[in-house]
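Students often ask what a 'structure token' actually looks like in practice. Rather than answer in the abstract, let us consider Putative lipid kinase, a protein of 306 residues. Its sequence is given first.
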Amino acid sequence: MTSKARLIYNPVSGREQMPKNVADILDVLEQAGYEASAFRTTPEKMSAQNEATRAAKEGFDLIVAAGGDGTINEVVNGIAFLEDRPKMAIIPAGTTNDYARALGIPRDNIPDAAKIILKNKTRKMDIGKACFNKKTQYFVNIAASGSLTELTYGVPYEIKSALGYAAYLIKGAEMLPHLTENEMRLTYDDGVYEGKLSMFLLGMTNSIGGFEQIMPDAQLSDGLFQLIVVKPSDPGNLLKLMALALNGKHVDDPNIIYTKTRSLKAELIGKSEGKDLPVNLDGEIGGYCPVSFDNLKQHIEFYVGC
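Now compare that with the structural description of the same chain:
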């Protein structure tokens, strides 16, 4: 019986480069032995997510997510909750393409990214699960909260497209004088942190916002998150931390907690209790604190290039 593959692509990703590459991608999938078809996402909310769920329930063996990190996140959310999950492949066409970078997928040539499937190399990857008061969300790369997380979702698309990684540095310098602190309780495998913080990051790969050393010890399928807690500090020291993060030296700073954990519970306490503090999942706001995270070890099988 022929295996079936469904390409789910965002037509506006990568400066609208995806539509003209659809035929080549489908040809690669046919070469790989799949009966292939395509779905063009629409502006409708959760378009990619709903199509991924439909395809998985109809027995498709492979779902190819083509677009930016947001499209990949939607497709993952469309299948992660299912008992029977298809394989996934990704074709990066966004600005930073963090997850593609972590999986060794070519990020500057759409047909070459598709041809990774022909190598038939797969790996079961960890998936993050975030439980808010009224909903559950999944993520593949990063969960974060605190004022510094604006670095991931506060940079306008046009600026990211024009400046790439430099956009994050410019945004960071702009934010420093206006940073706020939150009083939180973080409960993780090895302990509890209670007090003020500027940000926490829960990472699953070593690539965040285009930087490859923020989570220097990240593994892709060990069932563990990398947790970074940034304690309050003066703007000058935070600028220093940003510079150290470029080469992974920030984890030794006394204003940083860096550890591994299978789970995390984050809640506001004290004067911060009752605030609407957003939680960023793979570059988009996924919900608001309080939130509990669990690592779903080796939950989805991906085609990889490394």
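One point worth highlighting: The two ends are 29 Å apart (CA to CA). Ask yourself how you might have guessed this from the sequence alone, and why that guess would often be unreliable.
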